[in-house]
Amino acid sequence: MTFTVEIIAKQTIKPSSPTPDNFRTLKLSLLDQFVPAVHVPLVLFYSSNADTEENENRLDHLKKSLSEILTYYYPLAGRIDGNDSISCNDEGIDFFKARANGHLNELLVGNWLT
């Protein structure tokens, strides 16, 4: 069985409150400047066995929580500026809603067995 994923929606989640002016630029350490840039995606899987309204409530709660936590981890909502700093400009992060044509356990077990 081929496991396919369909992206249903894409949204940018921004911090719930703006970054203070004195934290707008985060200088990177010398070590950070020499480490190659790494993209670390995070994927969360949730069962859709619940009714549609419960799924939408769960999704809204996730978005709200993410927006609130980005206030404390403000560099994550910014962009790398050159090689020596992060511009903490509250641009936000991408949030995708997707649907898969199978079950997560089929994907995980299937990959371990092949």
UniProtKB/TrEMBL annotation:
One Gene Ontology term of the molecular function aspect: acyltransferase activity
Q: Which InterPro entries match?
A: CAT-like_dom_sf (IPR023213)
Swiss-Prot/TrEMBL keywords: Acyltransferase, Transferase
Q: Identify the Gene3D superfamilies for this entry.
A: Chloramphenicol acetyltransferase-like domain
| Family stated for the protein in its record | Belongs to the plant acyltransferase family.
- In Swiss-Prot or TrEMBL terms, this protein is called Vinorine synthase
Which source organism? Answer: Thalictrum thalictroides
